[in-house]
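_Full entry_
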Amino acid sequence: MMSKVVYTLTKEQKRDICEWISHIKFSDGYASNLARCVNIKEFRMHSMKNHDCHVFMQNLIPIAFCEMLPKHVWSALTEVSLLIQILYSMTPDVNKVQELEGSVATILYDFEKIFPSVFFDSMEHLIVHLPYEPRVGRPMQYR
């Protein structure tokens, strides 16, 4: 039997997260009803719209997994959430974007220490170019 990796959740933890997500209420227009996207019996999320995925990645991942994952895994996920949150803001702060541009390599390095190599393909490495985009163009949502 293979040992579990550090980011594996137990069934109880998966159930707790699914139940937590199914009970979250958002103000009108912020996100849709995520309860319809959660299957508590199978511990899965499905049929999320693009905006709901962004809300989940930007705001809910750091809160949901704070006490369930080891600190180094949680902090790597939180860094990516912060990166996405800053890059997709209506008016990204140029200084923060430049800081992020320097820290993206560290974030990817942390991910490479945590996740197996099969997790990575060209899409995961595109994150290196994301902080450069708002500096040369406009904020992401206007393109």
The CA atoms of residues 60 and 99 lie 23 Å apart. The radius of gyration is 16 Å. The chain has six helices and two strands.
